[in-house]
Design goal:
34% of the residues lie in helices and 11% in strands. By secondary structure, it is an alpha+beta fold. It folds into two domains: 108 residues, Beta-grasp domain (Ubiquitin-like (UB roll), Roll), CATH 3.10.20; 121 residues, Fumarate Reductase Iron-sulfur Protein, Chain B, domain 2 (Orthogonal Bundle).
Length: 245
């Protein structure tokens, strides 16, 4: 396959970036999107050019570090798929693919396609954990959790913190990420002792980081590689109101 790439290049955070155009003639349908970028970088290195910086780690859709805008869509057009799981068979011979980093004030560009997502870490540090002593793993059924609650908690806990929700939201809101972390713990007994302070601290930190407000646009749910529902945001709002009063 022949693929034309239009990739955002930015040397440093404060530098002015621009798109650079590359052509690859040796792309195979079996390649993942990140493998295709590896091939591009090998080609650039051989020709004494600076390789394209991009984040990746597990390449199994678990770590969330691979987030990119592919043709204007977070993680690309294939739903429930992180970029590292996106394969070149999703594209056609001769296609032009536009690749950009996440675009959000709270996610400043470090270099090329790499952004600083430490704002998510600070939101988690504000309360996305259980600090009380929960002891060892309990015996089965000794701490009953209703099946609907355990299922929803599991779904929300699937969030990998990739930032696609922020990048796709017209307000650059982190509400889906924050809500998934808050709602996950609110559904479990271990999360109840700090339930009220958690939602207040995490939502306050989210605002301090410069993320926008949720306006129920719904794009966050559409691009989430784990399919997390915006129902989590409704649950977070209920938690917030209860905590205030």
């Amino acid at each position: 396959m022949k693929i034309n790439l239009k990739i955002w290049r930015q040397a440093k955070p404060k530098h002015k970036g621009q798109f650079a155009v590359y052509t690859l003639d040796n792309v195979y349908p079996e390649m993942s999107f990140l493998e295709m970028l590896d091939v591009l970088n090998e080609q650039l290195i051989v020709s004494n050019q600076e390789p394209v910086e991009f984040d990746s780690d597990c390449r199994e859709g678990i770590c969330g570090s691979c987030g990119l805008m592919v043709n204007g869509i977070a993680h690309g057009k294939q739903q429930l798929t992180a970029v590292c799981q996106l394969h070149m068979r999703s594209f056609n011979d001769g296609d032009t693919i536009i690749v950009e980093p996440w675009r959000a004030k709270a996610f400043p560009v470090i270099k090329d396609l790499v952004v600083d997502r430490s704002a998510f870490d600070r939101i988690m540090a504000a309360g996305g954990y259980v600090s009380v002593n929960t002891g060892a793993a309990p015996d089965a059924n000794s701490l009953p959790v209703a099946k609907p609650n355990s299922d929803r908690a599991f779904d929300y806990a699937a969030c990998i913190g990739c930032g696609a929700c922020v990048a796709s939201c017209p307000n650059a809101s982190a509400s889906l990420f924050t809500a998934a972390k808050i709602s996950h713990l609110a559904l479990l007994p271990q999360g109840h002792p700090e339930r009220q302070q958690r939602v207040l601290n995490m939502t306050e930190q989210m605002a301090e980081e410069g993320f926008g407000d949720c306006s129920n646009h719904g794009e966050c749910q559409a691009v989430c590689p784990k399919g997390i529902s915006i129902d989590a945001i409704s649950a977070m709002r209920r938690e917030y109101i209860n905590a205030q009063f």
